[in-house]
């Protein structure tokens, strides 16, 4: 049994995966704030799989953790996970001896990319484009995660596509994230709402000019990210996930229209068939937790499910 955890800013999703690759148990619990509380959340999540999901914890052979922030290459050290109140935390050192099994740690988007790849069929090449508070991607080919020379492969959110566009938190203007990131849209919209991006879509449907501008910018940013991923990595598919994708068909219709417009203007872009290569991760899919389980299994020489 392999366990994977998706440690998010508010909730942690935990799954147990059996030898056939099927999910044998799943639980969710609140994520604590700060290094000690995050460590406690990881330990509690593994225990909860046994207590609440009926998983035989004695059969667990590895644990993988997907978590926001930067992961120092070759270590379990998490740095700059600001949404968790963590400036620096060695998660492997903090949890492995207490869990008694190998522990692997990966950035949450990269873990989700591996999980989405497995859910997508586990062959060929794929980019997972996470549309959440920020924008980032993970690229997987034949089960291997491409990290790049310094671990920044897939950081498409900070590619500027409009030098006169909105200011991005990175200091540039017109970044994909500034156009399509949920945090940027909420800030620029400026209205209190439980789901700001959905509020923007609803207001745009009602004819609000500012909302229409923001909605168009989101579609433009996502379409730009899709083009970047295909033109640079030539992946078979780009799978969209993250909180913003809860908009489902409304989002996909806007993105498809943007891609169709570029195809209409360019025979070369038309030849790439971008609309056919974009898919939406099914709602509720435990991609990040599943990917984390694969990361953890790779730390166990007898139970590795994937390379990378």
What's the short version?
This is ROK family protein. By secondary structure, the protein is of the alpha/beta class.
Structural notes for this entry:
InterPro entries: ATPase_NBD, ROK. This is ROK family protein. Belongs to the ROK (NagC/XylR) family. The chain has 308 residues and is α/β, with parallel strands linked by helices. It folds into 2 domains: 2-112 and 285-297, ATPase, nucleotide binding domain (Nucleotidyltransferase, domain 5, 2-Layer Sandwich); 122-280, Nucleotidyltransferase, domain 5. Helix content is 41%, strand content 22%. It contains 11 helices and 13 strands. Strands 3-2-1-4-8 form a 5-stranded mixed β-sheet. A hairpin with a 4-residue loop joins strand 6 and strand 7 (86-90). Helix 3 crosses helix 11, helix 6 (196-205) packs across helix 7 (209-233) and helix 7 (209-233) packs across helix 8. The longest helix has 25 residues, at 209-233.
Note the main attributes of this structure:
single chain; 308 residues; alpha/beta; Nucleotidyltransferase, domain 5; 22% strand
The CATH superfamily label of the largest domain reads ATPase, nucleotide binding domain
Low-confidence stretches: 303-308
Assigned CATH architecture of the largest domain: 2-Layer Sandwich
Structural class: alpha/beta
- Overall pLDDT score: 94
**What's the CATH topology label of the largest domain?**
Nucleotidyltransferase, domain 5
Quick one: overall form? globular
Work out the helicity level.
40-55%
The N- and C-terminal alpha carbons lie at a distance of 19 Å
Q: How many strands appear in the DSSP assignment?
A: 13
């Amino acid at each position: 049994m392999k366990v994977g955890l998706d440690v998010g800013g508010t909730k942690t999703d935990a799954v147990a995966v059996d030898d056939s690759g099927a999910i044998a148990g799943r639980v969710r619990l609140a994520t604590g704030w700060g290094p000690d509380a995050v460590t406690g959340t990881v330990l509690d999540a593994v225990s909860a799989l046994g207590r609440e999901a009926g998983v035989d914890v004695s059969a667990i052979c590895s644990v993988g953790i997907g978590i926001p922030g930067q992961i120092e290459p070759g270590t379990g050290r998490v740095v700059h996970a600001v949404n968790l109140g963590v400036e620096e935390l060695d998660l492997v050192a903090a949890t492995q001896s207490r869990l008694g099994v190998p522990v692997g740690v990966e950035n949450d988007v990269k873990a989700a990319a591996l999980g989405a790849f497995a859910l997508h069929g586990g062959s060929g090449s794929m980019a997972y484009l996470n549309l959440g508070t920020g924008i980032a991607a993970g690229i997987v080919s034949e089960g291997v995660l491409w990290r790049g020379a310094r671990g920044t492969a897939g950081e498409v959110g900070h590619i500027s596509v409009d030098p006169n566009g909105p200011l991005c938190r990175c200091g540039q203007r017109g970044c994909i994230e500034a156009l399509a990131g949920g945090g940027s849209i909420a800030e620029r919209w400026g209205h209190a709402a439980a789901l700001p991006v959905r509020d923007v879509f609803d207001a745009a449907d009602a004819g609000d000019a500012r909302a229409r501008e923001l909605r168009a910018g989101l579609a433009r940013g996502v379409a730009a990210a899709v083009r970047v991923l295909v033109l640079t990595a030539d992946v078979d598919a780009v799978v969209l996930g993250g909180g913003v994708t809860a908009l489902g068909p409304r989002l996909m219709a806007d993105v498809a229209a943007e891609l169709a417009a570029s195809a209409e203007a360019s025979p070369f872009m038309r030849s790439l068939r971008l609309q056919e290569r974009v898919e939406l991760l099914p709602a509720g899919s435990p991609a990040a937790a599943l990917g984390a389980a694969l990361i953890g299994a790779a730390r166990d020489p007898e139970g590795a499910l994937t390379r990378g």
